[in-house]
Amino acid sequence: MKLLHIDSSILGENSVSRILSAAIVAHLKVRGDVEVIYHDLAARPIGNLTGRYLAGQNADVQHDQALQEDLHLGGRVLTEFLAAETIVIGVPMYNLTIPSQLKAWIDHIMVAGKTFHYTHNGPVGLAGDKRVILALARGGHYSPGSPAAGMEHQESYLRAVLGFIGIMEITTVLAEGVALGAHAREKAIASAREVIATL
């Protein structure tokens, strides 16, 4: 199995989403032959989309060295994504949504003609043969039924964007309330590990 492992937290070893994503990958590796490609988007961020990048995909646009490198990186990101059978993504919640580093990566895999295309009946996803496991960490509580549920734009956004490109097999491993004290953090991590054991 080809597995793409993405981390996006800026907190390094203190990151709960990194702890969970690593545990998920370790669990999957024990269960079979797994080839892993890993990217730390905080340590080596992918640039935001630019007009030059989009224009540079046309053959008649002159490329300088910087643009060539940008296009090469974007092409590699897309190729790795398309080749992966399973994608594990470590996702902290920052300001009610996902890190900007992860959004930049998503922008490079949302490519018309590659991961989706438009029809008269609306968009159709082309990447539905993949499984995605989201390792989600949140400082507070935003799950359905909580007072802040309406402000959750982390999991809901990821499910929407992945669904747009055809991916419906999405599993979430969630640790909530990790900023509410050491006990709450450890309890949330332990609960998430129980879910990982069932994957």
What CATH architecture label applies? Answer: 3-Layer(aba) Sandwich
Number of helices: 6
What is the makeup of the main sheet? 5 strands, parallel
What spatial form do the alpha-carbon principal axes imply? globular
Strand content: 15-25%
**Quick check: average pLDDT?**
92
The helicity comes to: 25-40%
How many domains is the backbone divided into? 1
Q: What gyration radius follows from the Cα positions, in whole Å?
A: 18 Å
Beginning-to-end CA distance, first to last residue: 15 Å
CATH third-level topology: Rossmann fold
CATH superfamily: Flavodoxin domain
What is the ordering of alpha helices and beta strands?
Answer: EHEHHEHEEEHEH
Helix/strand-derived category reads alpha/beta
Strand order of the largest sheet: 2-1-3-6-7
Low-confidence stretches: none
| Total E-strand runs | 7
